[in-house]
């Protein structure tokens, strides 16, 4: 390890030193609190001695695992390689090994063994997987997580809670000034009299590192503007589309958004339960005023890719109607987690919805999330399309992981 001073913050270092004999160590914290870096640096430090350690680092999915591997490289300076035989791994100069795996089913974790086990984003790893892996570690087990949903790992906290550490972004000695300012902005929004439940939830969970109840109405203050006022907003327009496939319970929506400083403007172009035909959908998009030069951010999931391909190719030249024969420009929407997209939407000081967007306005007026941040109502296709457009307009994470 290039840096032997272990710059992980005094709070983390003290916690690890006091728990060298503890079986389970649980680190709960806000985003960007440095927990993953701290565990990876500590494991690298204790694995660099004379005793050879076999460390297993686990996430629920491969995208999450790639983020953890990136953190490992950034925090230790060591490179991780991938091979058919060994998978993702890193061998330290003294022979100690780090192995990186993703498990979404406990049967895949059976037969695994290691010296130390690190489960990152532990609340996303199924309980059966954790139980199976916990029996495989001969020394210590580390858990790291954001308190985004009810926990199934509290059973590993001892009575004195000496093996439990809660941290915030203030405990990360490497956090850039710009990200600190983003956390402070969330704090300020949560303390406004008009703060939504999601504002307060984002502050309690992502800033303070505490569990919080998310249930309740999300969009508590929506302003109205005319379509003409929306058109007059001098800002780039982004379009989001969500597809309906089956019947009138499944809506096809096309939503436009404009961002003018701290104000979000939203307009409903299409909200229909009969546009299951790709050709008629293309005609409806044209009649909404869009051309082949306007990019639409769509959901490629499910059957979405087929519908998008048809819109792009004008069904391989079969649509001779001049209105749609040139096709449309469609991109895969930046979807991410629902709660992150909704949080991007309510970060604005004001949200205006046009007076003709009746169905979308009804969705937003009744849009609620449950404790785990999932929509209560299935009637959310308009909000989903707006979320795709806002995500693609803002880009990236509001707060980087």
Question: What distance lies between the first and last C-alpha atoms, to the nearest angstrom?
Answer: 24 Å
Strand content: 15-25%
Shape: globular
By CATH, the architecture of the largest domain is named 2-Layer Sandwich
Number of strands: 17
Series of H and E elements: HEHEHEEEHEHEEHHEEHEEEHEHEHEHEH
Major beta sheet summary? 8 strands, mixed
Strand line-up in the sheet with most strands = 3-4-5-2-6-7-1-8
Topology:
Layout: H1 10-18, E1 24-29, H2 35-46, E2 54-59, H3 62-76, E3 81-83, E4 87-91, E5 97-102, H4 106-109, E6 116-120, H5 127-134, E7 141-145, E8 164-167, H6 177-190, H7 197-207, E9 216-217, E10 223-225, H8 227-232, E11 237-242, E12 252-260, E13 263-272, H9 278-287, E14 295-298, H10 304-313, E15 329-332, H11 338-345, E16 350-354, H12 358-365, E17 368-369, H13 381-394
Parallel strand pairs: 1-7, 1-8, 2-5, 2-6, 6-7, 10-16, 11-14, 13-16, 14-15
Antiparallel strand pairs: 3-4, 4-5, 9-17, 11-12, 12-13
Helix pairs in contact: 2-3, 6-7, 11-13
